[in-house]
Amino acid sequence: MTIDRGFPAPPALVEHARRFRATDGVPVVPRMAATVLLLRPAGEGFEVYLIRRVAAMAFGGMYAFPGGGVDPSDSTTHLDWAGPDPAGWGVRLGLAPAAAQAVVCAAAREVFEEAGVLLAGPDADQVVGDVSDDGWEAARTDLEQRRTGFADLLARRGLTLRSDLLLPWSRWVTPEFEPRRYDTYFFVALLPEGQRTRDVSGEADHTLWVRPTDACDRVEAGELNMLPPTLVTLREIAACDDLAAVARAAADRDAATPITPYLDLSDETGPRFHLGPPPAS
User: Fold this and answer.
1) What's phi and psi for 184, nearest 5 deg?
2) Which of 29, 101, 161, 177 is least surrounded by CB atoms within 10 angstroms?
3) Strands (E), the chain
4) H helix intervals, 55-198
């Protein structure tokens, strides 16, 4: 039997939790969000792309995957689409079709905004190559600054959103005591051939490609700071020998049932996050 030793909690989150409980706080409604684990081959294994959020942001100083909140424009219905239709995505994600489309669009949009990687192509069988020239960068900036919508950007370029390149993995909800809460869907995706990640969004102060097992070791050594959703997901994909194994694992994942870590303030080793339901009071 595996013993749940939990995860250390950053002091700022502990303070939020103590204040919330002391004042009988009312939980904020979580904002829908999406995040993407970009993977690429590396020898006989693979690497994952991590970014460290700038200190001024929510969860600043923590390593995470590219992602962010769903934008109203992500629910645009006029979108050339490849892969499962919104109804099919809704079944997999446990959402209504329109909400599922918004989450999938947010995943593709955010990974373009934050990492310069575009999961789209001229048709349902192709993906664009390099998207780092000045014209593409201007388009990415317009998208990031909300001067244009993701559907409009793709339409002007004659591109199809390749939703089939996103493999749903899990769903995490921020604990109730946090002032900023997210209901986040995690996806995995292979870095398209000919494209490269770029630190372009201004929301990260460091990025790296790293083998998942090495990243987990560096967390244990105190070199990388992560919140439970990131670390747990890294451990899960680290159990896969190669990218084909990741795809097989994704096919059987429950991406609809939310996981909400709870914070135990009474742990004798210090406040720690745990993944199971809190003990009965």
Assistant:
1) -110, 130
2) 29
3) 7-8, 31-42, 45-53, 63-64, 67-69, 81-82, 120-121, 160-162, 167-173, 182-190, 204-210, 262-264, 272-274
4) 86-93, 97-115, 134-144, 150-156
CATH superfamily of the domain spanning 10-268: Nucleoside Triphosphate Pyrophosphohydrolase (3.90.79.10)
Rounded-to-integer distance, Cα 278 and Cα 266, Å: 12
57/219 Cα distance (integer angstroms): 21
Question: Does residue 202 come out as left (phi exceeding 0), alpha (psi in the -120 to 50 range) or beta?
Answer: left
pLDDT in tens, the chain (281 residues): 344 567 777 777 888 888 888 888 888 999 999 999 999 999 989 999 999 987 545 556 889 999 999 988 887 767 889 999 999 999 999 999 999 999 999 999 999 999 999 999 999 999 999 999 999 999 999 998 889 889 999 999 999 999 999 999 999 999 888 888 999 999 999 999 999 998 776 667 889 999 999 999 999 898 998 888 999 999 999 999 999 999 999 999 999 999 988 888 876 677 888 876 665 55
